[in-house]
Design a protein that fits this description.
Number of helices: 12
CATH topology of the largest domain: Quinone Oxidoreductase, Chain A, domain 1
Number of strands: 20
Distance between the termini: 12 Å
Shape: globular
CATH architecture of the largest domain: Alpha-Beta Complex
Bound molecules: zinc ion
Largest sheet: 7 strands, mixed
Amino acid sequence: MLAAVLHGAHDLRVEHRDDRALLPGEARVRVACGGICGSDLSYFNKGGVGDFRVREALTLGHEVSGTVAELAPAADWPLPSRLTVGTRVAINPSRPCLHCRYCRAGRSNLCRNMRFLGSAALMPHVQGGFSEHVVLRADQCVAVPETMSYRFAACAEPLAVALHAIARAGNVVGRHVLIAGAGPIGLLCLAAARHAGAASVTITDLFPEPLQVAARMGATDTIDVQADPDRLDRAADELGGFDVAIEATGAAASVVRMPLLVRPGGRIVQLGMLPPGAVPLPVNLLMSREIDLVGSFRFHEAFDIAVQALAAGRIDVTPILSATFPLREANDAFLMAGDRRRAIKVHLDIG
Ligand code: ZN
C-alpha cells in the first residue's frame, strides 16, 4: 500500500509500506481522506512536535476517514453498533488502553498507555493514516451517515479537539470568549463556542486571510495583532477582560499575554502546543485575580459528539476547507498547508 512517510524534516516520501494481518478486535479501514494537521506540519518542518521527535520512519496523519475493509472475527468486546464491512467511518485516532486509572475515570485522553495515530510519542512510533489502509481497534471506527463527505468526516478529529477545549473552558453561555489564533483549531473553537452559546467571540491572528474566514464563521470581532498590536488590549479593556481565553497559537508571545486579557475569576485554556522548554508567565496575576489556567489535550467523548454535530449540520466546517491533493502530491499539499495566507485545512485524497 502507498503511504506518505516522513523520514526526517522536509523528507516526506510517498512509498510502499507493508500491510499487516488483523489481531482480534481490530479493523482494517480503506482510507479515503486525510486532513493535514498543525502537528503533521511540525513533524514535516522540524522533525518533531512539542517534546516528541521523529526517531524512525513515520507515516503521518491522524485526521482520517474511509470505509471498513475488514473486521477481525474474534473481537473480545461487542463491535460498535452499525459497524460492518463497507461502513463509512470517521477514524478516532486515539487508542487508549481502557484499563488505567484515567481511562476508568472517563479521561482517556490522559491515558498513560495511549497509542495515537501518526505519533512519535512512543518507540516504535504509531504509524498514521496517510496510507491506503490503516489498522485500528474496531472501537476507533465511528460510523457516519452515507451522505457525509469523506472530507467532512475527516474534520471530526480537529472538531473534537475544539469541542473538548470548549468543555475545558466551562460554561461559555453568555460569556465573552477570546480565541488566540485563527488556524484550523482556533476557527473550529470559534464555531464550537458559538454553538455552545457564547455571547461574543473575538479571534486574533497575525494574518488577515484566516481572519476573513473567521468573520464568515461568525466571529464577533477579528483582530490582526500584527497590523494593530494595541487593539486586543483595548478590546479587553472595553469588556473589563474576557471571561474565557482559548490560547490556540502555541506561541510563547501569545501565551504570556493571556493573563492580562481575562477578567478576575476568568479562565485561560492552553490548547496550542509550544516548542520544548519553559515560558515565563505573570503568575502573580493568576494568583491575585484568581484566574484559572487549564490545559486541553486532544479529546475523549468529544469525538462522537463531533461526528453527531457534523452529521446534524449543527457545525459547518465548509469555510475551513481549502484544497485537496492526491496522495502522490503529498509534498505539494504540505507546502500549501504550511502557508497560512493560502490555506486553512488541506486534505489528501487517498481513496
Ligand atoms: Zn488508559
